[in-house]
Specification:
Beta-Lactamase; Rossmann fold; 27 helices; 40% helix; 20% strand; disordered C terminus; binds zinc ion
Amino acid sequence: MKEEETEDIDEGENTNRSLHELDLELQDHMDWWPDLSDLDRLNILGANREDRARLLASKDSKSVESIIKEISRRLDLTFVDDFELSSNPTKILPLRLIHSYSCLPIDAMEQSVQKPKVLCVDDEEGILKGFQLQLRNDFEVHVASSGDEGIEVFKKVGGFSIILSDMRMPGMSGSSMITEIRKIDPKIVCVLITGHSDFEIAKDAINSGQVFKILTKPCPTEELVEVLQQGIQQSESVGKSNLSLNSKGNKVHLLTLWPPTPRMSRWVFAVSGKKPIWYLGLPEKVTRAITENFGIGAESLDDSDLDQDGEEDQQDDLEDQNAAIIRFVNEVIMKAIVDRATDIHFEPHKETLQIRYRIDGQLVPVRVPDNLRSFQDAIISRIKIMGGINISEKRRPQGGRINFSHGQSDLDIRVSTLPTLYGESISLRLLNEKSQPLSMQELGLLGKDEKNIVNILEKPHGIVLVTGPTGSGKSTSLTAFIRRIHKPERRIMTVEDPVEYEVAGINQTQVNSEIGFTFASALREILRQDPDVIMVGEIRDRETADIAIRASLTGHLVLSTLHTNDAPGAITRLIDMEIEPFLIASSVEMVIAQRLVRRLCSKCAMPAQMQKSDLQASLALLGVDIDECKFGDSVLEAVGCPSCQNLGYRGRVGIFELMKMSDSIHSLVIKSASAPDIREIALEEGMSTLQETGWAQIKRGLTTFEEVIRYADGMMDEDEVSVESSKVDQTLPPVTELQ
Ligand SMILES: [Zn+2]
């Protein structure tokens, strides 16, 4: 039998290296049983895995048991007679592999001997009894009926993996007991359980890092066990900062009935992300356990298995499936590029794996093959491998990057994973390295607004803030501003997360929070580099706000963004960050609130021909003078054509609210006035609202009432707006490839 070294399952260097290590570790071709004729060896290797030990035994006239024990001695594989199937075995290993390789995920042998110790503390005897019943299968349970007794038991018994305690008890409370116990063992993980849902206490306890989780009574057994196990797992990973292949969580314990081949190990690793630890068991027992727990695999029904290529065929099937997954993921990404999507979301639901694109800010569902759900794990693993993410870590959010080349475009894709109810949800953000930053006109700024902004940007110092929710195009605007004021005699430096557009001639820095290079620390460094203009991607915390304000007061122009709904809200946000009002008043020059609305497709937009009453109602909704009805003829509506994926819109345009810091607003800020008060004065002084500029864009035939009404309302969550599926024509890669 020849071994084909197809390594297309993984592309990450790390993974390849470890696969290679696995190769070296394991023997193959039965050279561990040398005194065997070639013909006998071929006969044995040609048989099903479950029959091989029997054949070898009859050849040597020995019992199967003694042969298996001999093999495990020679190969140094632990022989296992009694075993516990791990809980959720098919989550560890797909059913298909269990059947093809006749192997079973089992509890690690050293673990099944010793259960982790849990200390349960509660003042009610009945509840303690309940815990004992609920936990005795999975843990060694010790109990205490008060905080003092808990500490005593903890010291006396020792070796606890986790503590489960009532929060409110007479005498010492659960959290004070934990504080005491953590003085003895700072790493001990604690779970609190309470009859009251006291959110504040719970939050404090979790924030203080002392408590892993808070549960409410009564807690179902399943949940209780799972939370405790998660807590224990967490404590085991604490201190092992580098999750190497050898750490405990990255192994999978597999019982099989014949020595595994390197290829088996590779596949297990590719599918589960875990290094297999193999054990040998009696073929009869292993097959029985597989049939009892997982039924009969399709392969076992095939009589032609005695044919020598049988095993390779099965593996080829698996490799084909894997290649199909790779193709599928690539095609999902390529289609997203063609459709100008900015994000791709893979969302596991109960029945399906939903895939959605975000195009011009709107979520557009992608039609997927019916059987996609069964490939969910493989698809998610594939994306994680592409993104260089630890595929075995499924409980924590993770991030990664993919460099994706497709034709002319070179894409930098940010990957983020989040555990959800039915699996990990994955979001890809597509950053096109070639995408061109926009000019101020292209943003859709009206003439007078543009002039106002440029006036401020020409000043040598001060702060200009752009506000809006996520995805409202804040950094697009900042980049446009920077390009507008870029001159050889001005030194412009930025700190961004991430750098979305490259602008020639300016110095762009990217934060890297993993190494502690945050907005604040980057900003501090930049100030030592003699800049004239500084752009800070976002002001998220007091420290950054503080440095930005001081920078502006010492003669720098600072541009940044804040996550608030409207312009006056920026002022109160800064006050919330404990910035002195007089510092705000003397540094902030202008606040611009903005939204992006979808731009009508120029190929298919048609006059809306609205009824006068509808027009009046729409204008009233935007708070615009009814007199504007006279422009009703210029209102267009979305139609849909091939060039806009039948959506009726293509691209986006901004709507803005500009607040200039006048003298009267200054004095309001110094008095720490509320946002509505500031807003009222700003409006009196002629600030145009988002709705008013929205109407201006409607009049220009650039967008529609629907869009402005939807986005100008600051409270609206964009994600709740989705496109009717009937309007969508997103067809994905051939379904057959996945079958
Ligand atoms: Zn169109």
